[in-house]
Amino acid sequence: MRIGELATRVGLSRDALRFYEQVGILSSDRLANGYRDYPPEAVPWLEYVRTAQALGFSLAEIAEHGEELTEASDQAAALSALFADKVRIIDTRMTELAALRAELTARAGTDCPLRKQPTPVARAGRRSGFPG
Amino acid sequence: MRIGELATRVGLSRDALRFYEQVGILSSDRLANGYRDYPPEAVPWLEYVRTAQALGFSLAEIAEHGEELTEASDQAAALSALFADKVRIIDTRMTELAALRAELTARAGTDCPLRKQPTPVARAGRRSGFPG
DNA sequence: CTAAACAGTGGAGTGCGGTCCAAGGTCAAG
DNA sequence: CTTGACCTTGGACCGCACTCCACTGTTTAG
């Protein structure tokens, strides 16, 4: 598959794919004419990359994981471990969000939700410390 | 309070504070000598900014919210509404994370977790489509 | 009086994750 | 043989959120 087809299949720009190659996330064979050639497996791989990105992994981290994977003797086990790692990261993130949520709901109900927040700006004449 | 004190109090650099002023998140009065002068309320305001950032709001968005706040006739109500908005955003995010988590755990247990993921690279000779 | 610690400005640089562009090569259809 | 779609490269540029720097002014302690 050439770059244009891959790009439309995964919903990325050709530029993005070339960029991914630069940063070590994606590799390609070359056709006789120099065009990049991708195996069908590139599609699920890029879907995986997108998932990882959605989880907050940087492209550098994803590339690292990819290398670990290619070096692992047991691919399936390595990937399972990677997934387990991600699940732990998700759990951490969800916990943080839950804490923030609790804080916000607690304050939203109060008379002055600003106990620890920006004191209401005086009705007239914006004071400093705030956007203005 | 001058910039240095505020910076150490909120754990930001002086440069960051000046940057926040540039982008409309923070304002300051000036002393006779030209030094920035901040009211004590700047501290909780910046804590709020950090919270909002943690929730994934861009500084531009935070600045926007800040303006809405300064323009609101009922400050407390406006902030409560803002908080409620954020709680909804958190909920959405948590739902997304839960979905990803479910997908990952489902796959991590399987024989070949790659049904929709990068097909295992051949043991020898890395194929293209993967990090390489 | 001087040195240090603080403040000001403008502008350049950073890292991330790309996008855009110009100049050119390749290939199939008409 | 030309047109158009596709591909190549390198390099410039973008937005975000800062950070660092040089150079200058102010204040305070010894």
Q: What do you see in this structure?
A:
The structure is a homodimer of 132-residue chains. Chain A has 132 residues and is mostly helical. Chain A has helices spanning 3-10, 14-22, 42-54, 59-71, 75-108, and strands at residues 29-30, 36-37. A two-stranded antiparallel ribbon of chain A has the order 1-2. In chain A, strand 1 (29-30) and strand 2 form a beta hairpin. The longest helix of chain A is centred in the C-terminal third of the chain and has 34 residues, at 75-108. In chain A, 27% of the residues are buried. Chains A and B meet through helix 3, helix 4 and helix 5 of A and helix 3, helix 4 and helix 5 of B. Chain A binds a DNA duplex (30 and 30 nucleotides) through helix 2.
Q: Any chance you could write out the topology, listing elements then pairs?
A:
2 copies of one chain form a homodimer.
Chain A: H1 3-10, H2 14-22, E1 29-30, E2 36-37, H3 42-54, H4 59-71, H5 75-108
Antiparallel strand pairs in A: 1-2
Helix pairs in contact in A: 4-5
The structure holds a DNA duplex (30 and 30 nucleotides).
